[in-house]
Structures are given as C-alpha cells and as structure tokens.
Write a structure and sequence with these properties.
alpha+beta, 3-stranded mixed β-sheet, YefM-like fold, 3 strands, Prevent-host-death protein, 19% strand, elongated, 3 helices
Length: 78
Amino acid sequence: MKSYAVGELKSHFSEVLEYVKKGEKVAILFGKNKKTIAMIVPINQKTDAKRKIGILDGKVKISFDKEFSISEEEFLNI
C-alpha cells in the first residue's frame, strides 16, 4: 500500500489515481507525525470472500416460534 503526505498527494494525484485504478489502496498522511487520516480505495474492487454480518455470525443460531408474527408496521415501528 502506498502512502502520501497531503503535499505529495497534490503533486502526484494522477499517479495516485493510477494506483487506485489497478486495485491498490492509498493512504493519506497528515501532520508532523504523518498520521494516516484517510484512505483512497477502488470502488469496483471485487472479492470472492463472503461478508460476515456482525461479530456473532456463525456463532449463534436464531429461530422463531411457529406462532411468532409481526406486521410490517410493527417492524418499521410505525
């Protein structure tokens, strides 16, 4: 992953965009400490990995009673 300070980013912006087009992430550094404050990432990055939803994904089982029902209004809290 490439990193650029704000001043460098300004002068190398076209180069940065080329890295991003190739699928690379670019960090933006700021301040005297050169702390990472932002990332430029490609928006069309495809991944085959399935996204886990929540930290308990695959660790808990949720089931509902057969008599459980909720209206759409209740679900939307209307």
